[in-house]
Write a structure and sequence with these properties.
The protein is α+β, with helices and mostly antiparallel strands. The chain has two helices and ten strands; from the N terminus they run αββββαββββββ. The strands form two sheets. Strands 1, 2, 3, 4, 7 and 8 form a six-stranded antiparallel sheet that branches. It has a four-stranded antiparallel sheet with strand order 6-5-9-10, with no helix packed on it.
């Protein structure tokens, strides 16, 4: 490097500095988009004398449904595992349910999280949650990843 003129040394230094800053920026922006969390609008319905609320949460790793069931007349509905009467679909593909985890429960109320198997979401996907009880009820969301 002794034979390179000082002007060229500065030029090379600035180019390397710009490349370093650009690569750090790219690493940070990639990790920010991979950690993106999308919370969809909460939907509610009265089903079999019970109020059912569902809020989907989508991350890069999982699809979670936060479910609240409240019933003063049909208490068996709050004791039942939602895996037995929920059908979750992305577009026309059934998504298997991994786990039902209760976060809060009383005699007339249950609140928990349904965790679904890892998925590959595309832009403009439709998420459908269907409950099969006496009557079939469908909750539907349009998922836009942009």
């Amino acid at each position: 490097m002794g034979r390179i003129k000082p002007v060229y040394r500065r030029f090379i230094f600035y180019i390397l500095l710009i490349l370093l800053v650009f690569s750090v920026y790219q690493c940070n922006s990639n990790s920010a988009t991979s950690n993106k969390t999308i919370s969809l609008i909460k939907q509610e319905a009265i089903i079999n004398k019970a109020k059912v609320s569902i809020t989907p949460l989508i991350t890069a790793e999982s699809l979670e449904l936060y479910i609240t069931i409240e019933s003063y007349e049909n208490q068996l509905f709050t004791k039942e595992n939602p895996k037995n009467f929920f059908l979750i679909m992305l577009d026309d593909t059934v998504v298997p349910i991994n786990e039902w985890k209760i976060t809060n429960q009383s005699d007339n109320f249950v609140e928990g999280k349904l965790t679904l198997t890892p998925h590959q979401l595309r832009s403009d996907t439709t998420l459908n949650v269907e409950l099969f009880l006496e009557d079939s009820t469908r909750f539907s969301w349009n998922v836009n990843l942009n």
